[in-house]
């Protein structure tokens, strides 16, 4: 199943505390952003990449694309204040396609198998998101006191990619913008329209590089994969 991918890359990486966009930090000498881009560059089902960038970082990113021979990027629209705005800016710039994936540029370990499964379920059902089962006991806490222990069997930790029929996500993003709804993922926008979203079991290795220790885990995953 062919698809185009939107990669929001216009964050500042505050929790990483590196004083720059964390996507430029290296994992085994290659910037995180380039690890992610190479996955989609190599996936034959991916027919186009849309990268939301900060305008002041655009020239540097274009240099990186050349240096790492990334050829599938169709546009680098300006990102927005929040991640959702950055994604929307790409959706507005795109031509109509059948299936669109949204994937955090900060998740450089997604596999082609999971991508293919998501694209397939999105084609059949409209919306499919990657997630893994919660491993720890989950409790709701008020202040410092346990309010409730939540039954774990139905709890999933949600990741990206999130895959959709393009017109469904485009409509959901337009509606969210119109009413000023801000979600923490794309699925929330589609759920609001009353549309079912399906889960595809992903991998615990599909980490988002968020804080400093993630870089250590990330390098360990890369070392394991090259050996
Ligand atoms: N992102 C974006 N536009 C924003 C905020 C985030 O395109 N306004 C992107 C980030 O570049 C990242 C992805 O969305 O690839 C996931 O966001 P997150 O991990 O939160 O990254 P940052 O926002 O950069 O980090 P932080 O929240 O710690 O500042
Ligand atoms: Mg953020």
Mind sketching the topology for me?
Elements: E1 3-8, E2 26-27, E3 30-31, H1 32-42, E4 46-52, H2 58-67, E5 73-75, H3 83-93, E6 99-102, H4 112-125, E7 127-133, E8 138-142, E9 145-150, E10 156-165, H5 166-179, H6 186-192, E11 198-201, H7 212-226
Parallel strand pairs: 1-4, 1-6, 4-5, 7-11
Antiparallel strand pairs: 2-3, 6-10, 7-10, 8-9
Bound molecules: cytidine-5'-triphosphate (CTP) and magnesium ion.
Short description:
Helices cover 36% and strands 25% of the residues. It has 227 residues and is of the alpha/beta class.
Report on this structure:
Helices cover 36% and strands 25% of the residues. It is of the alpha/beta class. The protein has a single domain, classed as Spore Coat Polysaccharide Biosynthesis Protein SpsA, Chain A, CATH 3.90.550.10. The longest helix is centred in the last third of the chain and has 15 residues, at 212-226. Helix 5 packs across helix 6 (186-192). The radius of gyration is 17 Å and the shape is globular. Helix 2 (58-67) links the parallel strand 4 and strand 5. A 7-stranded mixed sheet has the order 5-4-1-6-10-7-11, with helices on both faces. A two-stranded antiparallel ribbon has the order 2-3. The chain has a two-stranded antiparallel ribbon with strand order 8-9. Cytidine-5'-triphosphate (CTP) binds next to helix 3. The site of cytidine-5'-triphosphate has 22 residues, from helix 3. It is an enzyme of class 2 (transferase). Pfam families: IspD (PF01128). Keywords: Isoprene biosynthesis, Nucleotidyltransferase, Transferase.
């Amino acid at each position: 199943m062919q698809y185009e991918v939107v990669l929001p890359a216009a964050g500042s990486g505050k929790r990483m505390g590196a004083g720059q966009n964390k996507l430029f930090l290296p994992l085994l000498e290659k910037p995180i952003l380039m690890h992610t881009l190479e996955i989609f560059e190599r996936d034959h089902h991916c027919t186009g990449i849309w990268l939301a960038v900060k305008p002041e970082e655009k020239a540097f990113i274009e240099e990186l694309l050349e240096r790492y021979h990334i050829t599938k990027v169709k546009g680098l629209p300006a990102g927005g204040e929040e991640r959702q705005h950055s994604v929307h800016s790409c959706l507005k710039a795109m031509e109509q396609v059948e299936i669109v994936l949204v994937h955090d540029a900060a998740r450089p370990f997604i596999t082609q198998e999971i991508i293919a499964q998501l694209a397939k379920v999105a084609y059949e059902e409209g919306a499919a998101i990657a997630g893994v089962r919660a491993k720890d006991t989950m409790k709701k806490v008020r202040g410092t006191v346990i309010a409730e222990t939540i039954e774990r069997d139905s709890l999933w930790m949600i990741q990206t990619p999130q895959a959709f029929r393009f017109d469904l996500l485009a409509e959901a993003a337009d509606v969210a913008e119109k009413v000023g709804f801000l979600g923490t993922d794309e699925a929330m926008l589609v759920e609001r329209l009353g549309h079912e979203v399906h889960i595809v079991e992903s991998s615990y290795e599909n980490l988002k590089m968020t804080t400093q220790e993630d870089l250590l885990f990330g390098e360990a995953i890369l070392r394991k994969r090259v050996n």
